[in-house]
Amino acid sequence: MLEGLSAFPPTPTDAEGTVQAEALARLIDRLATAGVDSIGLLGSTGGYAFLSREERRRAVEIAREAVAGRTPLIVSVGALRTDAAEALARDAQQAGADGLLLAPVSYTPLNEEEVFQHFVAVAGASDLPLVIYNNPSTTKFTFSLDLIERLSQLPTVAAVKMPLPAAGDFAGEIANLRRRTPPGFSIGYSGDWGAADALLSGADAFYSVVAGLLPTPALALTRAAMAGDAEEARRLDTAFEPLWVLFKQFGSFRVMYAIAAELGLFHAAPPRPVLPIPDEALPRMAAALEALQG
Questions:
Q1: Is 161 a known active-site residue?
Q2: What is the mean pLDDT of residues 44-59?
Q3: Residue 246 covered by a domain
Q4: 253 in a domain, yes or no?
């Protein structure tokens, strides 16, 4: 579950934030059929922060039925309050999750002890493996090596999902993390344009936005990089480059809704106040998708 490609699909909803059950079930079935190694439900791409507790649980129940035991489900349980995150962890386990993903969501900036105690409480709310979500671009909190080492000693904390290193030194960062964490602790990355470099440098997993809607080419890139085939991995990464440009310009969250509509997977607007990408960008997105299929 904590190795290979973890695909993070959007969560289609109506304007009131009610999950579109049939559309979500189709996405989950599509990912399981493609053979991704895990499905990251209700991650940042899944818009968890825009959903009520009830809809988040309902999404897990829909996904569990659709996946039918074929692929592990890693469910995000981030929330502003610790007690709310604990409740979400219990909900996810009861609804059939296989693992949990936790980011330190906050309005007031948090310090390391606050984040540590938050993780202790949420990790204790279930017996599922928990992935540390180090996502400073969204949460404005960066996990230090000391904090990751400390958290990795907790019984259920089994992995970390890292941002791309600023200096691009994947190998050095992975080596430092391996020295500071227990054997078997999974080190993964997110930020799709860094997938090839991260996996070629020895990362255990890649947590992918684009795989949530384009699992086949994302799997091809992942498998090549994990096999050490740098030439093929970089060739496939080059094919993705027009899409990476759009992700960086507009944000992957917005672009994924446009991709879903272009491919006929679902039709829904991003949750407000987020707006769709501008109409003038749609031909570029269509051309990027065509390049991947060619």
A1: yes
A2: 97
A3: no
A4: no
